[in-house]
Amino acid sequence: MKKTLAIALSMSMAAGLMTGCGSKPAETNATTAAPQASETGKTEAPETTKAQNTAEKEPVELTIWLTSRNKDDWYVQMEDQFLEEHPWITLNKVVKEGDPGNEFYQAVAAGNAPDLVDSSFTMMNTYIAAGILEPLNKYTDNWDEWGNFTSEYIDMFKKDGSYYGLPYQVAPMLFGYNKALFKEAGIAEPPATWDEAVEDAKKINNPDKQITGYATLAAEWTEWFFQYYVWQAGGDLTKENADGTAELTFTDPAVIEAAKYYQKLRSEGVLQSDLTLKFGDLVTNFGLGKIGMMPFAGDWVAEAAEKGIDPDDIGLSLPPAGPSGERTTAIAGTCYAINAKTDQAKKDAAWEYISFYTSRAYLSSFFENLATKGALNPVIIPRDDISVTDFYEFPEEYNQVLEAAKSVGRLEFYGKSDFGSYVDRAVQKILVDPNADPEKEFSAAQDLCASEALQAFNEANKR
């Protein structure tokens, strides 16, 4: 079932983009998959390790959120298998457009939340702090597959000894570079440091051909990419206190270093000239061969390749190291969690659903399916007993960088969903105005954030 990158691309599927999140096996990617056939030609579902338990159970309706009702035969087959093995459970499927996980908090407060949520990593700290997620230990302790999950990832959602989320797909933020443009410029390797990145970008940058040496977010969500540079400079934008409250550190020396580096990219003329380009525009332009390098997640590979870039020209590495010597980046992805406010029978049913859709049997069938359809995103399955390379082949470079990301990856800065917009405005200001003083702009952003958002955040999150 293995497919090389080039063969897979010729059969490419439309890949979902991540807002710092990975693709969703139970939903988005499955919509393009096809059922598997056995040697006899009959479609078969994978065996599960869960014993069927149809003993006297009260009927339970499990409410779940989906992004679409349009599911392919393979997905329907898997759902039918789940329901056959759990005849006491019925599914109430509610369509939620966009990223349903981001609306979960408000839905819990309104009393109309689903019984389980498929959440991005970004939102999990907020949900855990708010007390709206059910501890999973009573389930995981008795699950024979629990020991196969990779500790680096499950521990991200562990607080005070309790696990609150079960990740099923991980896509670290890496650094993408166009190998063809690098070769034309006489550059043999991706940059290892910030300074090397600037010098390489100068060699690649070619306004006459509309080729930008370096790109980063400037028009929206600028705090998303900016945080990586702050970490690489040795600091952070906030500090999480032991009691769950936050301190703002927008004026940390590392923040100022990162801001000055952004200004250097701009002043050296290697950053995209059109600062109004949004996230989708950057991925598209990378795919069109117009960007030399940029922060780049593994699950954007298929999207960029669909725009025309030869998949063999998509290079992935760890981000260049900043002044601290660190190449720190973010580990993003998606995980399942249970609504703590629903009743016990629904919590139990939610676990049955989660354990089915994160089982080795289900994930093996899922990725085997995608391999036949051209899925080629180098993502991480957060289990030690299965890897995407079991189903299709990637360049060895991809395998190495995914493994390396485990030791340098971390969750996004604490309170990002509440404080990010204030950072965003400061970053935009220092990029648009070449005379802007980073210390002044980030100090003003911190003061405004403290007056408008910090107190409410700390009151809501204090333990």
Automatic annotation (TrEMBL):
Q: Which residues form the signal peptide?
A: 1-26
* The keyword Chloroplast is annotated on this UniProt entry: no
Species this protein is from: Hungatella hominis
Q: Where do the segments described as Disordered lie?
A: 26-56
Alphabetized, the UniProt keywords read: Signal
UniProt entry tagged with the keyword ATP-binding:
no
Please give the superkingdom of this protein's source.
Bacteria
Give me the stretches of Polar residues compositional bias.
Answer: 26-40
Q: What name goes with this protein?
A: Extracellular solute-binding protein
PROSITE patterns the record matches: PROKAR_LIPOPROTEIN
Q: Which PANTHER family match?
A: ABC TRANSPORTER SUBSTRATE-BINDING PROTEIN (PTHR43649:SF30), ARABINOSE-BINDING PROTEIN-RELATED (PTHR43649)
Q: Which Pfam families match?
A: SBP_bac_1
